[in-house]
């Protein structure tokens, strides 16, 4: 092969010359238009149409009827318990989920794979089974409850039991969100900070935490959203006492059993709107944190 031919081969095709595609010019994935069409169709069937039906059923109520349905003392008490317990459980999961993720990423120990698999257990375990297990453990005659109740510590059939159940089902969301981010963080930055005289707390607060803060907020949002709609694991350990340990999903179920469909959708719409606003605020905090840390 001559030098001229080699130079031309390295230079590539001349401008204006079409380059044939391999495989006959066919792409593996479909084009943008058909992909977007299927995406919108799927979202409409799964999300938009059910939500539209929810709002449409609620609109059959007059404003006084709607207000009476969503603002009765029993419903307001369920709001306070549901959102308060969900928020508290998400906070606890954020702290201890970060700790669990840190241990799984940064340390090697015997049985690490077993611990890593146990984190996913709440995903695979039916929620009703989780509720029954926690009740058997924490009730007055349970393995743990029989020692706590004589001390005046009652967990089952109280709002405390609701928080414990929500912590149980929400922990994996934080761990599995933070874990891959910790694995991708550069340890060289931590070593450089320590070489420059930074303490362990300064290294964590100035180097590690800004990198994992968006993931922590995402895990918090996912755990919080999961806890708000939880039903199966809570009803067994809550006791379901009106004005004390009755969650909002149970209120909705009760209205449905009484054939008060409009009242049930009214309470559901309030939960939906409050959840949407809180998730919108959390997403805004995520965007602010990325912008502040110089991320994309």
From TrEMBL:
Gene3D superfamilies: MetI-like
Transport as UniProt keyword: yes
Transmembrane segments: 40-60, 81-103, 123-144, 156-175, 207-227, 234-253, 259-282
One cellular-component annotation, GO: plasma membrane
Keywords carried by this UniProt record: Membrane, Sulfate transport, Transmembrane, Transmembrane helix, Transport
PANTHER family noted in UniProt: SULFATE TRANSPORT SYSTEM PERMEASE PROTEIN, SULFATE TRANSPORT SYSTEM PERMEASE PROTEIN CYST
Family: Belongs to the binding-protein-dependent transport system permease family. CysTW subfamily.
Protein name (Swiss-Prot/TrEMBL): Sulfate transport system permease protein CysT
Native source species: Pseudorhodoferax soli
């Amino acid at each position: 092969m001559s030098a001229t031919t080699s130079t031309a081969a390295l230079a590539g095709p001349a401008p204006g010359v079409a380059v044939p595609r391999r495989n006959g010019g066919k792409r593996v994935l479909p084009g943008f238009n058909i992909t977007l069409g299927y995406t919108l169709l799927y979202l409409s069937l799964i999300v938009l149409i059910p939500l539209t039906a929810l709002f449409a059923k609620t609109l059959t109520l007059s404003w006084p009827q709607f207000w009476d349905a969503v603002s009765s003392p029993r419903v307001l008490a369920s709001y306070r318990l549901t959102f308060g317990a969900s928020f508290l459980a998400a906070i606890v999961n954020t702290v201890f989920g970060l700790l669990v993720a840190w241990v799984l990423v940064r340390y090697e120990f015997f049985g690490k794979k077993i611990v890593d698999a146990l984190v996913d257990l709440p995903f695979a375990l039916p929620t009703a089974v989780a509720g029954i297990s926690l009740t058997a453990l924490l009730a007055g005659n349970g393995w743990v409850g029989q020692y706590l109740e004589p001390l005046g510590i009652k967990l089952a059939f109280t709002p405390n039991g609701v928080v414990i159940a929500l912590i149980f089902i929400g922990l994996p969301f934080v761990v599995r969100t933070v874990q891959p981010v910790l694995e991708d963080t550069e340890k060289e930055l931590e070593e450089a900070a320590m070489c420059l005289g930074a303490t362990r707390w300064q290294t964590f607060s100035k180097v590690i935490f800004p990198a994992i803060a968006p993931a922590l907020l995402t895990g918090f949002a996912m755990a919080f959203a999961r806890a708000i709609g939880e039903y199966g694991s809570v009803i067994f350990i809550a006791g379901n006492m009106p004005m004390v340990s009755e969650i909002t999903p149970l209120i909705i179920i009760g209205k449905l059993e009484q054939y008060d469909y409009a009242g049930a959708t009214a309470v559901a719409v309030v939960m939906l709107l409050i959840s949407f606003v809180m998730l919108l605020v959390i997403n805004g905090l995520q965007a602010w944190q990325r912008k502040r840390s110089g991320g994309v």
